[in-house]
Amino acid sequence: MNVLRQLQRYYKEKMSFLLLSVLCLAAATALGLVYPNLLRKLIDEVIVPKQFDTLPVLALTLIAVVILKAGLLFLHGFFGGRLGNYLAYRLRNACYEKLQFLSFRYYDTAKTGDLMSRLTGDLEAIRNFIGFGFAQLLNLFFMVLFGSMMMMSINWQLTLISLITIPILTFVALRFESKIHPAFQEMRLALSSLTTAVQENITGVRTVKSFAREPFEVDKFALRNGRYQENQVNAAALWARYFPFMELLASACIIILLGVGGTLVIRKALSLGELVAFFSLIWYIINPMWSIGFHINNYTQSKASGERVMELLQQHVDVHDEPEAVLLESQNVKGHVTFDHVTFAYGNKMPAVVDIHLDAPPGTVIGILGGTGSGKSTIIQLLMRAYDVNQGAIKIDGIDIRNIKVQSLRSQISAVFQETFLFSSSIRGNIAYGLKDVSMDDVIRAAQLAKAHEFIMELPEGYDTVVGERGMGLSGGQKQRIAIARALLKNPKILILDDATSAVDMETEHEIQAGFQEVMQGRTTFIIAHRISSLRHADEILVLNEGRIVQRGTHEQLTNIPGPYQDVYRIQYADHLTRVSGKAGGQV
Ligand SMILES: Nc1ncnc2c1ncn2[C@@H]1O[C@H](COP(=O)(O)OP(=O)(O)OP(=O)(O)O)[C@@H](O)[C@H]1O
After folding, report:
1. Which residues cross the membrane (predicted)?
2. What confidence tens digit (pLDDT) does each residue in 234-255 have?
3. Best substitution site from 319, 343, 346, 354 to test ligand 1's pocket, by max atoms within 8 Å of Cβ?
4. CB 3.0–4.6 Å: which of 35, 40, 511, 532 could bond 273 by disulfide?
């Protein structure tokens, strides 16, 4: 019950619903005991002595009991439903909130399909158990307790003899529980691997098709589907063995009761009415034993689900606000960024960046150039505090970013990445993402600066055009321009362009950059680019190799000294340089 106890904090305000639901069910169960008593009275006091005058009273009592019991069962369902849905609602919100605040480190390895199945299937199992299963499991106990007490009051010897197989039933049920629980855990894992396969396939459908990997994907899915099926079959085999055995034991109870009870009636040690009442009461013991498997199964499923949901909710958030963290007020932030000998490694890997040292006073433009995997994006990720540095410190206006509230830090930074994510909403909504009270004029101005306005106006519904999931229907360059407009509209103190213009042609890039010059006055900008043309106006350019800064300086300085920057410059400007030197040669 440990995990279910942990879940209590999500429904403790509605604990009264749980109590009411259990009470109503227990009362309905207790009321059910009136039936065998009525039967006994009917046989012993009406039918056998032929005293029919009490029949109407008995009939009316029966009707009243039926109505009352129905009312109690309704209330059990009502309170249970309210409780289960309240818990599911709270858990869903809590999980979603957790997902928002979990750090990038978690998402480096998280699987979308697995998370989706926690938020759907697992939550549903918990909702069912807390809403109904728990009360019903308790009710089994009440049924056995009330039933055996009543039977004892009629004839305790017959009760003990009839219930002789009950310990064996309990033992079998508990053994079954210990086997079905791991089987269910396996099943849930297999299901989440199945949903992960579907989700990844849909997300990466273009890649799959372009590599003609459909047959491979089908086989991969079939393999996982096979594993899921195998798990289902294993669980079904457990059930299949369990049920006949339980039936055998239950039937043994009935046979013993009929044999011994019948003999007692013949010897007049028991009345016929008592035997019939006994026969009806024994189901108060057998029925719970029958369904104990189902309820235990329900319990184990929700326990496994609870563990998976709690595992998500208890994930450590490694980037979080320190108690004394300060809030950055937009109007006071200058945007002075410093990296003080920063070193960082992802997990146990080799450091991705080593001893990075830089000073970017407000309004400066820092260019970062380097080969693939040289650590350019890592520098940016660290500045946004996606990860905490291992050594050194990053400061904004002299404050270590670990001492700044994460949200207020990120609200001062706008980043445009190489890969643009667009939400399935209108273009206007995408540009104004995360901002409140933005006027249409501001949205248009940002789009104009990002050179997106013209193509947006050509779309069927202009700024109200709804883009498909992940921006389907737009070209890579168009998506990038929308992302740039989004970043510009935020009006940040620090702007990061991480290969942000890689998907637009040189001419558009030039135009966008001209726009940047205008809006980036007084803002600190980091530009990561592979094209020298994007970096040449930077105040300082850092050249990275294997996580270390191997060259730094302005474009003019770096082109004049031999080194990687000059090499890249020569390659990218080969045509231009040949033309220039050709002209110079001709003139000589
Ligand atoms: N989330 C991550 N988890 C583990 N290792 C990572 C992660 N992101 C990057 N790395 C590793 O860190 C190193 C630096 O990566 P980074 O993304 O900073 O390079 P980059 O210079 O931006 O490359 P590119 O130009 O290809 O984008 C690489 O060795 C990369 O494999």
Report:
1. 56-79, 125-148, 154-174, 248-270, 276-296
2. 989 988 888 788 788 878 888 8
3. 346
4. 40
User: What element of type H or E holds 354?
Assistant: strand 351-360
pLDDT in tens, 89-112: 999 999 999 988 888 888 888 888
Helix, strand, or coil here: 48? coil
Residue with tokens 């360059």: 477
> Looking at the 3D structure of the chain, how many domains does it have?
3
| E strand residue ranges, 219-271 | none
Return the CATH number at 481.
Answer: 3.40.50.300
* Residue whose entry in the numeric block shows the structure tokens 């050249």: 543
Q: Token pair 């070209």 is at which residue?
A: 475
Q: What is the dihedral of CA 491, 494, 495, 496, to 10 degrees?
A: -150
Instruction: Compute the distance between CA of residue 324 and CA of residue 378 in angstroms, rounded to an integer.
Output: 26
Instruction: Report the separation in Å between the CA atom of 258 and the middle of ligand 1, taken as the mean of its atom positions.
Output: 77
Other CB atoms within 10 A of residue 463 CB: 19
Q: Which of 469, 491, 513 is the last residue of a domain?
A: 491
User: Are residues 483 and 467 both part of a single domain?
Assistant: yes
The single residue listed with the structure tokens 């999980």 is: 95
Cα separation, 444 vs 427, in Å, equals 11
Determine the Cα–Cα distance for residues 216 and 207; give it in Å rounded to an integer.
Answer: 13
Place of tokens 């019991």: 69
Structural domain boundaries enclosing 435: 422-491
Does residue 109 lie in a domain region?
yes
| 529 Cα–ligand 1 center, Å | 15
Check if 377 has its Cβ closer than 6 Å to any atom of ligand 1.
Answer: yes
Say if CB 35 and CB 273 are below 8 A apart.
no
Which among 488, 500, 553 has a CA at the least distance from the CA of 531? 500
Model confidence, pTM: 0.73
Task: Mark whether 398 and 525 lie in a shared domain.
Answer: yes
CATH number for the domain that contains residue 47 = 1.20.1560.10
Same domain flag for 238 and 256: yes
**Alpha helices of 121-213 — where are they, by DSSP H?**
123-128, 134-154, 156-162, 166-203, 205-210
Query: What is the pLDDT, as a whole number, of residue 224?
Result: 92
Please work out whether the CB of residue 304 comes within 6 Å of at least one atom of ligand 1.
Answer: no
Is residue 282 located within the same domain as residue 190? yes
CA pair distance 257, 337, nearest whole angstrom: 86
Question: How many whole angstroms separate alpha carbon 136 and alpha carbon 129?
Answer: 9
